Amino acid sequence: MTVANPNAITNSEKPSLRYPVICIDGPSGAGKGTVTWRLAQALGYQLLDSGALYRIVGLKAFEAGLITADASQTIDEMAVLALTQSLEIAFVPNNASGRVDIIVNGDAVGDQVRNETVGGYASQIAVFPKVRRALLTLQQDMATRSGLVADGRDMGTVVFPDADVKVFLTASAEARAERRVTQLLNAGQIADFEAILATIKARDDRDENRTTAPSKPAADALLLDSSDLDADAVYEQVKQYCQDKGICFNS
Ligand SMILES: Nc1ncnc2c1ncn2[C@@H]1O[C@H](COP(=O)(O)OP(=O)(O)OP(=O)(O)O)[C@@H](O)[C@H]1O
Ligand SMILES: Nc1ccn([C@@H]2O[C@H](COP(=O)(O)O)[C@@H](O)[C@H]2O)c(=O)n1
């Protein structure tokens, strides 16, 4: 028989060290990465780019011949899971690019994951519950060391359901495609608006209609449509919302 120690602290009474978590969810091109970076910089918080995790797995699955560009193919979920479990992924903030650099098994991955083709691979493997589960702890652990701003599709619904702030940032598919066109043209690349729009809509459809962790606003999220807002206006609105929720900014 176990005798209760009257001086023991029970689990429910233990003071738990908890850092603030801000979730920025929404579809591709809504401006999540932009506002996430600015918030993390302003607050001195870590940044979780969860899309990068799915992009890495998607790219590696493609390179391993587990998936192709044909989204209607049958994929071996267990093989993608094994591949996911073999990857050691780390993020390093990069002030020059305003994003995080991704290190996989000790090697920097570079910008090769940041294109629509790899976004498509990511959304193919993102439907698998076992793969999502394998990436869960890594994401949640990032909130145990400091404050965190997390960018994704299911940050507020699944990964951090108790987050202090949840924002679902969206914009029309046309506005998002236009942003991609501008981004590509600025990088000296060719951009076809109609092709980009079609890819964005196909990815939205897959992300919103999958069974596990579909892209959707948490019940307690602020919905913000950025179609007619520039990046500064989005930042100011999200910052104000964070302050309303008790997050302190020094500047
Ligand atoms: N409010 C805005 N108005 C116009 N352009 C914006 C706005 N916010 C971000 N952008 C630009 O749109 C592009 C996409 O932004 P960003 O990468 O932040 O989106 P995202 O939601 O993180 O996309 P993804 O999920 O695909 O990573 C970038 O070129 C960015 O500079
Ligand atoms: N929390 C997340 C984040 C991303 N995904 C999937 O990855 C794709 C790429 O994401 P980006 O944010 O980098 O564009 C995205 O289309 C999703 O399929 C996810 O499932 N959950």
UniProtKB/TrEMBL annotation:
GO biological process entries: pyrimidine nucleotide metabolic process
Highest taxon in the source lineage: Bacteria
GO cellular component, one term: cytoplasm
Key words, A-Z: ATP-binding, Cytoplasm, Kinase, Nucleotide-binding, Transferase
Record domain Cytidylate kinase: where: 22-243
The protein's name: Cytidylate kinase
Catalysed reactions, as listed in the record: CMP + ATP = CDP + ADP; dCMP + ATP = dCDP + ADP
E.C. numbers: 2.7.4.25
Subcellular location: Cytoplasm
Similarity field: Belongs to the cytidylate kinase family. Type 1 subfamily.
Chief location: cytoplasm
SUPFAM superfamilies: P-loop containing nucleoside triphosphate hydrolases (SSF52540)
One Gene Ontology term of the molecular function aspect: ATP binding
Chain positions recorded as ATP binding sites: G26, P27, S28, G29, A30, G31, K32, G33, T34
